[in-house]
Amino acid sequence: MCVRVAAMCAVALLLAGCGHRADEPVPATGKTTIAAVAAADAAARPTPAEVLLPPDREGNPACPPTDAWGRDVSDGGTLVTVWSDHADVVTVLVRTKSGVDRAKTERIGPHDGLRLFEFPDVAAETVSGVLILTNTRRCYSMMDPATG
């Protein structure tokens, strides 16, 4: 009984938080399952692409989550991924803790999609930041936690 009351309260809170009007009828399903409440809760959470990160200390906005950097498992260097759906010239600037920066510039075609920028001579643990620059934007890339 307590679980059913708790589930009904959770649904009521979800409906109230999602803009459900009190004068609209709530469809009677007979039962409210915990799985239904969990599914509604998951649907209400923002996706990683919707989560806005604050700018870095230089005021650069965060790149989309598809543009990330991390340790290159093949050689221990640094690997930067850049996703683009249009033609552009992309420069990746890897800043190191020692103050020595490395950069690579490549032209990306309109149908290239994912591009990998490899920096085998820059160990991932020495990276202090990664900037991705195009003709239309400049942003900082987050480290991919799966490769850290």
- Structural class call reads alpha+beta
H-E string:
HHEEEEEEE
Radius of gyration: 22 Å
The side-by-side strand order for the widest beta sheet comes to 4-3-6-7-1-2-5
Number of strands: 7
Q: Which percent range fits the helix content?
A: 10-25%
- What percent of residues are in strands? 25-35%
Outline the low-pLDDT stretches: 1-24
How would you characterize this protein structure?
The model is unreliable at 1-24 (pLDDT under 50). The chain has helices at residues 2-17, 34-44; strands at 68-71, 78-84, 88-96, 102-108, 113-119, 127-133, 138-143. Strands 4-3-6-7-1-2-5 form a seven-stranded mixed sheet, with no helix packed on it. The chain is built from two helices and seven strands, in the order ααβββββββ. It starts with a helix and ends in a 5-residue tail after the last strand.
List the helices and strands and how they pair.
Blueprint (H helix, E strand, L loop, with lengths): L1 H16 L16 H11 L23 E4 L6 E7 L3 E9 L5 E7 L4 E7 L7 E7 L4 E6 L5
Parallel strand pairs: 1-7
Antiparallel strand pairs: 1-2, 2-5, 3-4, 3-6, 6-7
Helix pairs in contact: 1-2
List keywords for this structure.
32% strand, 148 residues, globular
